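TL;DR need structure tokens for one chain.
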Amino acid sequence: MGFWLEGLLPKEDINSDYEYYELIKFEPYMHEILGTDSSIIIKGRPFGTVEIKEYNIEDCNIKAYKDDAYISYAKLDGTLEDFLSSEKGEKWERLIEQCQITLSSLKMNFTGNLDSILLFNQGLAYITEGRTFTEQEYSDGAKVCIISAETARDSGIKVEDKMNFSFWSNGYIMLKTDSEQIWRHAPYGDGCGFIEESTFEVIGIYKAENIWDENEFFFTPNNAFAPQGSIEGSITFELPEFRISRKIIEETGEIIPAASGQYQSISNTHSYVIKPGHIEAFEKEMESLGYGGMFYYYDQGYSLISPILDSLKESTSLLMYVSVAVWAVVLSAFFIIMASRSRKTAGIMMSLGTKRSHIFVHMLVMLMCVIIISSLAGGIAGYFMYDGIVGKIYEEAREDNVNLEFSSFKTDQSISGKYDSSLIESFDLKKSPQSVLMIGGIQLIFLSSASAVMAKRYSMMEPLALLKGAGRIKGRKKK
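>> reply
TL;DR here they are.
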């Protein structure tokens, strides 16, 4: 019979309502077993008192385990094999098998989006070999999985290997420390049984930071991941009960009564993907349903810089419209001036007997030289002016919109404990030579086409019409 030595209780301090224990009156024959004698005095503080009292050991009771499986150790009269094969050892053999199942099991997490899991989203867990799940595998519930680097190393598993799984679930237990509550899978036990047996292919191996951290957002190396719907069996959770002690708020004197019940869900097992910029709307809706303040938000820093991006977008859009308008005015003036000068040149050349094809080439080359030189000059000037213009817009947007109190970044800090507040300072809109070349190329194509049309038109007109500024083309004379 297992018992706690510190569980010796005086008669007057007996509470018989124990789930796992029973109280046994101390008897004189127990002295020989325990190595004690009748002179032993027990000192204790009865429940609800501050005074320490003394009791003779024979006036006390032992709080003993009802199930001898809780015994830390016991003497056997033969070998372990003989004991396990006996009728008395049947239970122990079953317990050993259950322990082996628990120790050799992985925690399989079924998900519809691996990137919605905090550690993968924040880059604290990442694929080191193989790949992640495809959209097709998510939708089909494919029998593929991703395991940890530690599991792969210790078990000699490689990407593309097949693993045979027998799935089971025995609910959760709650472990309490001085500062937090820790959810843990209950071990395999009587009445548990297997839900389904399946073969999965390992398509990826991941590595995670702080693998033994007790924070509820982290996971131990025996966690594996598979697409939601990859098994057909139904998994039911036996969630533990909770009890909240009465609490008095000293500032107001308000008394919050004690409460008890059963947990309805497991912490950090549900993720919702929200469109960028909709966090506040989602939180407001959840608050209206009674779930306000129960969600952590993480978006890789988008919430902090989104006001800046919006302001930057408005400013750059305005700048773009103004620039396009100026460009159109300058372009129109350019073609008016060039047309005025070029048509007279074309008329003189045609009067001197120059072939129309030569006139076309001459005008096109002349226009292209001006276009190329002006495009290069404008592109170079714009490239070097980019930093000053966009930097000024960005600084104004940042000063007007930065909000370091945004909830999602409090979340980041509470998770990692090392939030880098310099994120907003290091945000940079980098200029790209490729974008300058692309814009210059588009402008060059447009202006070249317009120049070719104008050169072709002038080369087809009569010399006198070109010199006088008329617009008639050869072959279209009025009768």
